[in-house]
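Q: For a teaching handout, I want to show students what a protein-ligand complex looks like in token form. Below are the inputs, and the small molecule is dihydroflavine-adenine dinucleotide. Please produce the holo structure.
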Amino acid sequence: MNPLRTLILAAAGNDAVRRAVATAPVSRDVVRRFVAGETVASAVDATADLVEHGLRVTLDYLGEDTSDRTVAERTVRAYLALLDQLHETGLACDAEVSVKLSAVGQALDERLALDNASRICAAAEQCGTTVTLDMEDHTTTDSTLRVLAEVRRAWPATGAVLQAYLRRTLEDCHALEGARVRLCKGAYAEPASVAFSDPHEVDLNYVRCANALLAGSGYPMFATHDPRLVEIVAERARWHDRAPDSFEFQMLYGIRPAEQARLAAEGHVVRVYVPFGEQWYGYLMRRLAERPAAVAFFLRSLVSR
Ligand code: FDA
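A: Here is the structure, written as tokens, with dihydroflavine-adenine dinucleotide included.
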């Protein structure tokens, strides 16, 4: 892995760095480029704007890795309030939510995470929308897939995320035949024993997995900004005779917005992953790690305000 990327990912988990950045006068513009805002209202506003431009949305209430039941409960309530607002504003048919199990208690107790995820899925169903369970580092993959399997018994439309950098992922694609599956490259620092470290190998595995998902009967969601992968997926979708509404592209809020608009104008379903909330630090660091050139810009914003 690129040493700068490793360093930034290490900083993402370092409390001293976290405190320094969180209390520094970070330019609002840098954070606002990738994060919709800190409140439910700001998330709903960003959603309305994207939907008006022909895009769909998945919303992520920022926060992860909690070992505190109160924090997990606060996260569940934030999702319930968000779903309520999406319903009230008529946006629920174009917007779903993405949930990290570690934010709703997975590290404390898998059962608690299942119960909390189920509460969010039930509320989403009542509002006429769905949930996708984000995937985190490889130590949580089995647990997340177990919770997903349980949740899908009652809410079969609940989506999974699979990461192409993991060696196991092609097998997981087959195991999740028929499901809604978001395929991404993977964002965590993983050991070579479980993950491909060569970016070319990750891309090859992405294409293998994309083919498997497109050949199946599920609803694949291709989460990537990589122009080559977008092109290959679009070509493979045509080859598999996929109708335009039988798969979608997904990109992150603030990243390649012109490409999001272009794909939507071509008739593709495009969904934007919109993070919001006060806990933006870890998310922002992962985005910077993907694009070390942006780090200089970010560091400048820490000192100049
Ligand atoms: P890659 O990083 O190789 O980038 C390809 C190109 O995209 C770059 O050359 C550049 O042009 C552009 N680009 C990428 N990042 C950029 C940036 N920050 N700023 C500007 N341009 C940029 N991961 C995970 O582990 N678990 C999860 O649940 C999810 N969920 C998820 C949902 C959605 C909708 C998306 C789009 C992504 C995720 N991810 C994720 C993150 C994912 O695993 C991956 O880390 C990022 O998407 C970056 O990988 P790319 O496929 O974009 O390719």
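A: Two things your students might notice: Residues 134-135, 161, 163, 182, 184-188, 223-226, 250-252, 255-256, 273, 287, 290-291, 294 surround dihydroflavine-adenine dinucleotide (CB under 6 Å). The mean pLDDT is 91.
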